[in-house]
Specification:
This protein is mainly beta and 362 residues long. The chain is built from 2 helices and 28 strands.
Length: 362
């Protein structure tokens, strides 16, 4: 980075802390209409997002921590940009053009979210920052965590006047590789640290999901949601059927449960609406659009009240939910799943748009 760029970065940012001898910077962006977000260079990560309720009162609706030390010590991936491959690959292995590749394994014998030094652990540069937008960039070297090809990465966050948060993740490569970047914020529309999200109403534009085994690995099946706890084709409280779910992750976690599954989204390619969420007490509403074929809906069944969130607010089991739009889990090893292959000369582009609104004030 040249001297001028470094000065612009320093003028727009504040020091959040230090990680392995590197300064972690934070920037705050706003849309001038109530929305405000804070982001840090550690993992190109969203740490705060203030959204008004039906009475105009602001609350921070994403889970996170106050210090870099807490982010560095956790495996929750709060607010992070994850990759190269978000979600799980069984055995950390895949075959590409007849060559078997072995990835770093960081959840038992399996690969999760890019490995122990994935994109979430990188200290990204700030490429540009304005009042309502920030662009982070970094590089993933050839062979990093076992992935072939050098990739230039970019993550852009923009708050628009229509109360939307747009997230765009982009990458290229010098060799054929896998690319499946995901954004990993946990949402609680009542406000982070306000309790569980079981009363949030959710609708998912999906008629099918991909089941998982005891290691949270995709089995390769694609099943109908009809008549199952996975049916969110109409608005339903997150907690309505959660007790009917089979136990998941039993061989990885001592406790847990809840949803941690991929839904196969309706619609063709391009940006389209996939999820609506409503929190009845605050009246906050959130709608999400994505370009990706699937979404991992995780309801934080592995969180506990041992985890302290921002401003001394204790978190809890089911204290938030993630909406990780993605290719289907395990896709490199299932030929009938959407491909996550990226070739030289191509640009990977993954877009998410979160739109916020409220019920009318009473």
């Amino acid at each position: 980075m040249n001297t001028t760029a470094r000065k612009q970065e320093a003028d727009a940012a504040e020091v959040f802390g230090t990680y392995e001898g590197q300064e972690i910077l934070a920037v705050t962006i706003a849309n001038g209409n109530g929305l405000r977000a804070k982001l840090i260079t550690f993992g190109a990560r969203l740490t705060e997002l203030y959204v008004p309720d039906r009475n105009g009162d602001l609350a921070d609706v994403v889970l996170g921590f106050d210090t870099i030390e807490e982010y560095a010590a956790t495996d929750t991936y709060f607010g992070a940009t994850c990759g190269r491959y978000g979600n799980r690959i069984e055995g950390g292995r895949f075959v590409l053009d007849g060559v078997e590749h072995h990835l770093n394994v960081n959840e038992g014998a399996n690969h999760l979210h890019g490995g122990v030094q994935g994109f979430d652990r990188k200290v990204w540069d700030i490429e540009t920052v304005t009042a309502d937008s920030v662009v982070f960039r970094t590089t993933s070297e050839d062979g990093e965590m076992g992935f072939p090809g050098k990739s230039n990465l970019r993550a852009t966050y923009t708050l628009a006047a229509d109360n939307t948060l747009r997230i765009v993740m982009e990458a290229d490569t010098t060799k054929p590789t896998l690319m499946n970047m995901v954004h990993h914020s946990y949402f609680n529309l009542a406000g982070q640290g306000s309790g569980d999200v079981l009363r949030h109403d959710v609708r998912i534009s999906s008629r099918f999901y991909t089941p998982v085994d005891d290691e949270l690995l995709a089995t390769g099946e694609i099943l109908s949601v009809r008549g199952t706890p996975f049916d969110f084709t109409e608005f339903k409280a997150i907690g309505a059927d959660i007790d009917r779910l089979p136990s998941v992750g039993a061989t990885i976690f001592e406790a847990g449960g809840g949803y941690d599954h991929n839904w196969c989204l309706d619609g063709g390619p391009g940006l389209r609406k996939c999820i609506d969420v409503h929190e009845p007490v605050s009246g906050r509403r959130m709608t999400m659009h994505t370009t990706e074929p699937g979404v991992q809906f995780y309801t934080a069944g592995y969180l506990s009240d041992k985890v302290m969130g921002k401003k001394g607010k204790r978190l809890c089991k089911y204290g938030g939910f993630t909406l990780e739009t993605q290719k289907y889990p395990g896709s490199p090893n299932f030929s009938h799943f959407p491909s996550c292959r990226l070739d030289p000369g191509e640009t990977y582009r993954h877009e998410m748009v979160f739109s916020f609104g409220t019920d009318a004030a009473s």
